[in-house]
Amino acid sequence: MFLNMKLLSHHGLNGFGGMGEGTSMQLARGGRRILWLAHESAPKNFTAVDVSDPRAPKVVVQTDLPHAQMRSNSLEVAGELMAVAYQVTKFGLKPAGFELFDVSEPERPRSVSFFDASGPHSRGCHQLWFVDGKTVHMACADPELKPRNPKDDQVYRIVDVANPTKPRAVGRWHLPGTMEGDDAPPPQRLPANFDAGFRAHNTNVYPERPDRCYLGYIDGGIMVLDISEQSRPKLVSRWANSPPYNGFNHTVLPLFERGLLVVSDESVRDNATDWPKLVWILDARDERHLVSISTLPLPPVDAFKQRGGRFGAHNLHENPPVPGAWKSDQVVIGTFFNGGVRAYDISDPYSPREIAYFVPPAPEGSKIGAVQINDVFVDDRGIVFTVDRHNGGLYALEMNV
Amino acid sequence: MIPDGRTPVIVVTGFLGSGKTTLVNALLKKESETLVIVNEFGEVPVDHHLLESPQERTVALPNGCLCCHLRGDLEETLIGAAMRRRRGEIAGFDRVIVETSGLADPGPVAQTLFADRALERDFKLGPIVTVVDAAHPENRNFSLAIAKSQLAAADLVVLSKTDRVSDFSAALEEVRALNPQARCIAARFGDVDPALLAQPGTEKLGTDHVFSSAVSHPHGINTFTLKFQGPPRKDLLERFLALLVDLRGADLLRVKGIVALDNGQTVAVQGVRHVFDRLRPVSRPADTGLVFITQNVERREVDALWQAMSNLKGT
User: Fold this and answer.
1) Do B64 and B152 fall into the same domain?
2) Do B232 and B87 belong together in one domain?
3) Which of B212, B226, B304, B296 has its CA nearest to residue B258?
4) What are the phi and psi torsion angles at B120 (to 5°)?
5) Beta strand A234-239 with A249-255: parallel, antiparallel or unpaired?
6) Which residues of A132-155 are buried (b: 16+ CB within 10 A; e: fewer)?
7) Per-residue pLDDT of chain B (315 residues; tens, 9 = 90+)
8) CB of A359 within 8 Å of any CB in chain B?
9) In whole angstroms, what separates CA A5 from the centre of its chain?
């Protein structure tokens, strides 16, 4: 299925095509474009693909995890430094936190340091944001904290990596009421079938507002945090859609010049049983008073829910402030599992329009019989790179809008 | 970047036997991701069987003429195709080609796309391609009003059957006389560069013709370009177009162009007879202005109307 997107190439990543939500481009020495991809689950850690020619991608390195009870899921490259998240499947396991790599030679990533966040109440780091080479903003457990509910383990954490060999925790924030010792009462949880947790997910910080973190907080909604004092982040505002919706707020993409926030949910149940999982446009001209003004029009749920696996919103192209990344405040591109990758014109934010999509056929060997498009990165040539969550690997697309 | 994303609807028109189906077949060989809608004039649909496109991508609209009562069917077909595409029931298509009956005025197809708010969300008018028989003068029929309308509306004129004649200057001259603004190319067996169909009709003002020739207008047909002294106000331009349509809409065979406005925006203007598309933001090209192809409306009348309106204080 396609509209204004054409497949340039597809790479199965050597049979390990189950990819997470870490997709980052390095403009490497010699003019090469290296796409770094975090795997969804063991046994692989990350894969680097030379996409200088998007019609002929080449794997340049693929690494293994130390054991099977962990995943990397998320990574980011800033210059020649890469941060890779490590999340374990059970509390107390190691390694939990993130690892820094020197990727000056993409074929030979060299470990520089490891930030340990393991502990009896920690599953480590699920997602991280690292764009300036100095600071990692992440959704990660803090061993100093004990969550009242084990689903609430990962908080917003700030780690100074200006000295990459010695990462240093400098600040954190969690929703009051979720940790032992908090004065606030525990938050009202969603119904058991949708109770995913009150914890951090995406932790975006941009140079336009270095004093703000745009934080997705799963069942807790989204937050704008004042991080002008990194040791003491403060809540500026919060917007929540659940209840009555079914939780799992994922990404907050600010469009500064337009005074908008783009917020994605994540679908986490097969056959759209947690529908609707949407992408919301918020009027953020007054950051203290966020107003939902529209949602991106997804294709009909009745036509997609039985296609296999999940259907609904997930990741967005986040306009990462790094060289080589495409930036737009008129077009939003997101991933929708079996709904593929989709682009929307939001020039009229009250009436977004679908302008392009690509839904690959079910990858060969798919157990669910459908693709599960998981993450997306668009480079400054306009090439859309998107990945499958289970086994489809990498798709390079040309968008013509 | 000004995103659009709507699927272009290319209208292929031309008099009976001019070579439309040959052209469409040749295009399909090069650009397979195409939905073809064939309009035939007769009881039994025939032409769509001549098309070498997968059945699911070919729709026949029999029993009538698109310029008459089949406009509703065209709307229904396009909306249905867009819905089926969104639902994943068909793989997709990058463009639509509407092959009109040889006896149809292509204007109403354009009007359908401008006037239907449900349609314009997914579709936009692409170039109007008029096929003209270069080999057989008797097949051109430019004395007939319908053939004249077909040619006047064209963004691109394809001179067909040039394998059968070495000198097609007569055909070219006839075309130029009626529509000097259209790009004009010669084709053998419908073989044209699909890139010529990639741009909507407004992206070029028709100043870079493949052929050029002196223009002599037949009685009643006028072609001219309205250039603005300075960037006009958007509301003034809209009122001017509205008034022009009120006064002489039936005689505006084609109006198209790009106008730089005083608010810094650049907009495309497209109109056929009484119906105009809304002003749509586009990237600014080197050349701006409005091209008119009219019958019985002269340049001085349009100039005078614009001057009068722009001189009125408070408008």
Assistant:
1) yes
2) no
3) B226
4) -70, -10
5) unpaired
6) beebbbbbbbbeebbbbeebbbbb
7) 778 899 999 999 998 889 998 999 999 888 888 998 887 644 444 445 445 555 555 666 554 545 545 567 788 889 999 999 999 988 889 999 999 887 778 887 888 888 777 888 899 989 999 999 998 888 888 878 888 889 988 999 999 998 888 888 999 999 988 888 889 999 998 899 888 887 655 444 433 333 333 344 556 778 888 999 889 999 999 999 999 999 998 888 888 889 999 999 999 898 888 888 889 888 877 778 898 888 889 999 999 999 999 888 665
8) yes
9) 22
State whether residue A148 is helix, strand or coil: coil
Sequence letter at residue A326: W
CATH value at residue B268: 3.30.1220.10
Buried b (16+ CB within 10 A) or exposed e, A248-275: bbbbbbbbeebebbbbbbbbbbbbbebb
The total number of residues written for chain B in this structure: 315
Is B35 domain-assigned? yes
Same domain, B12 and B139: yes
Domain count of the fold of chain B:
2
CB contact under 8 Å between B87 and A300, yes or no, is yes
Rounded Cα–Cα distance for residues A200 and A137 (Å)? 11
Q: List the structure tokens of A201.
A: 């997910």
Do residues A385 and A393 touch, judged by C-beta distance below 8 A?
no
pLDDT score at A372: 98
Q: List the structure tokens of A2.
A: 């396609």
Give yes or no: residues B162 and B232 share one domain.
no
Tally of CB atoms within 10 A around A302? 10
Alpha-carbon distance of B283 to B268, in angstroms, equals 9
Give residue B209's identity as a one-letter amino acid code: H
Q: Tokens 């086994």, residue?
A: A391
Task: State residue B57's pLDDT score.
Answer: 58
- pLDDT computed for residue B143 by the predictor: 78
Residue B206 lies in a domain: no
- The answer to whether residue A19 neighbours chain B at the CB level (below 8 Å) is no
Helix (H) or strand (E) holding A84: strand A81-88
Residue B214 lies in a domain: no
Q: What is the pTM of this model?
A: 0.88
Please tell me whether residue B166 adopts helix, strand or coil conformation: coil
First-to-last alpha carbon distance for chain A, in angstroms, is 16
CATH code of the domain containing B173:
3.40.50.300
- B178 and B228 co-located in one domain: no
On whether any CB of chain A is under 8 Å from the CB of B2, the answer is yes
CB-CB neighbors (< 8 A) of A304 in chain B: 88
Among B197, B231, B263, give the residue marking a domain's end: B197
Instruction: Give me the domain span that covers residue B267.
Output: 221-311
Place of tokens 């005083």: B262
Instruction: Using a CB–CB cutoff of 8 Å, tell me whether B89 touches chain A.
Output: yes
Contacts of B6 in chain A (CB under 8 A): 355
Q: Which residues contact B188 (CB under 8 A, 6 or more apart)?
A: B162, B163
Alpha-carbon gap, residue B127 to A374, rounded angstroms: 38
Domains, chain A, ordered by start = 19-320 (2.130.10.10)
Same domain, B183 and B88: yes
The parts of chain A modelled with pLDDT lower than 70 are none
Residue of B3, B33, B92 with shortest CB distance to A331:
B3
* CB contacts, 8 Å: B121 with chain A: 353
Give yes or no: residues B101 and B152 share one domain: yes
* Minimum Cα–Cα distance from A401: chain B residue: B5
**In the prediction, which pLDDT does A25 show?**
98
d(CA B136, CA B92): 38
Q: Domain check: are B91 and B154 in the same one? A: yes
Q: Does residue B233 form part of some domain?
A: yes
Residue B119: φ, ψ to 5° = -70, -40
